[in-house]
């Protein structure tokens, strides 16, 4: 007999789910998950919290979703529908928890997407949230299209003690998505391979930091290409992206590169990100993230800053492992260390 693996089911929580939700909350707090409570959290307190939350859901002030597999609760997430009359369009994403045994199965992402859909259905377009900085939640929300508003130090005590910082995120649900034709993953990968080949050239032929960039016109034609030339050209501004955009501008006879997509093997820095905004680049696709100077969300989030009158759509992580290993090995070689494979 064949047994079928039960699939993930996401459904609104009812009163009957209170005890399962309480057990998940106690477990999350015991594992130092920042969800507003201190460890040890008595089961009775957890039950009381969910009783209140489920009543708020019945009044239409909150949405509580549960992720189930078979009869097992794998995760939960809530949406607080902001009640201020001036913010009928905002909802706060909160109490997103995944059972320890269900980590890495995509439960959290599925819950967030379902909560976004619930927000849309209730006319809420702006989602805000805060996430503790020490839990790696930052990358999770960024992959789901959330922008970083900023960090607040000493925001809340961790369940097991010690003050922790928090990162505040936002997402506009009706924000324009990149054009579907340009977001085809196979096309992205093909142009990223081209950029990676340029990065390799930068290192092999010129001993420059291996970063490559390719500028593609709205018709899918390569109109600019470049790699880092700082050392060779004695030019602090000669990053791969700048070199590719200069070439593209000359080729197109225009300082505006409207509708163009820029592929680059490393998350752009602030200088390059601002040049992309000035050039009206439609979209940037990058490979490896740069936790030290990245300006597409890692350190700064310039490409999506609502204060600019032009915003650049961003796709990160295309062939990231390959680009990241190349960069790591370049710097290892400079320090006389053997390469990682
Ligand atoms: Zn740069």
From TrEMBL:
It catalyses: adenosine(34) in tRNA + H2O + H(+) = inosine(34) in tRNA + NH4(+). Residues 186-300 form the CMP/dCMP-type deaminase domain. It comes from the Bacteria. Binds 1 zinc ion per subunit. The active site is at residue 241. The keyword Hydrolase applies. Belongs to the cytidine and deoxycytidylate deaminase family. ADAT2 subfamily. This is tRNA-specific adenosine deaminase.
């Amino acid at each position: 007999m064949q047994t079928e693996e039960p699939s993930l089911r996401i459904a609104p929580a009812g009163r009957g789910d209170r005890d399962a939700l309480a057990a998940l909350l106690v477990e999350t707090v015991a594992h130092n998950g920042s969800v507003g409570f201190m460890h040890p959290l008595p089961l009775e307190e957890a039950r009381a919290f969910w009783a209140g939350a489920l009543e708020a859901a019945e009044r239409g002030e909150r949405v509580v979703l549960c992720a189930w597999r078979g009869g097992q609760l794998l995760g939960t997430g809530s949406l607080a529908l902001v009640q201020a009359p001036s913010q009928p369009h905002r909802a706060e994403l909160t109490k997103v928890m995944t059972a320890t045994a269900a980590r890495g199965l995509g439960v959290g992402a599925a819950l967030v997407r379902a909560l976004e859909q619930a927000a849309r259905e209730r006319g809420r377009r702006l989602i805000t949230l805060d996430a503790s900085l020490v839990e790696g939640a930052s990358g999770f929300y960024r992959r789901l299209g959330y922008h970083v508003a900023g960090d607040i130090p000493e925001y809340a005590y961790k369940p097991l003690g010690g003050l922790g910082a928090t990162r505040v995120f936002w997402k506009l649900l009706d924000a324009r998505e990149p054009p579907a034709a340009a977001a085809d993953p196979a096309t992205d990968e093909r142009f990223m391979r081209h950029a990676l080949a340029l990065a390799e050239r930068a290192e092999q032929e010129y001993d420059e930091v291996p970063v490559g960039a390719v500028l593609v016109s709205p018709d899918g034609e390569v109109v600019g290409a470049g790699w880092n030339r700082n050392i060779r050209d004695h030019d602090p501004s000669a990053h791969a992206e700048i070199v590719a955009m200069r070439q593209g501008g000359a080729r197109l006879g225009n300082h505006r590169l409207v509708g163009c997509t820029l592929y680059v093997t490393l998350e752009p820095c602030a200088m390059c990100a601002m040049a992309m905004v000035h050039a009206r680049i439609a979209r940037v696709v990058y490979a490896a993230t740069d936790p030290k100077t990245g300006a597409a969300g890692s350190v700064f989030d310039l490409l999506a800053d609502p204060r600019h009158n032009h915003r650049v759509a961003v796709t990160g992580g295309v062939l990231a492992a390959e680009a990241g290993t190349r960069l790591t090995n370049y710097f290892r070689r400079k320090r006389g260390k053997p390469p990682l494979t």
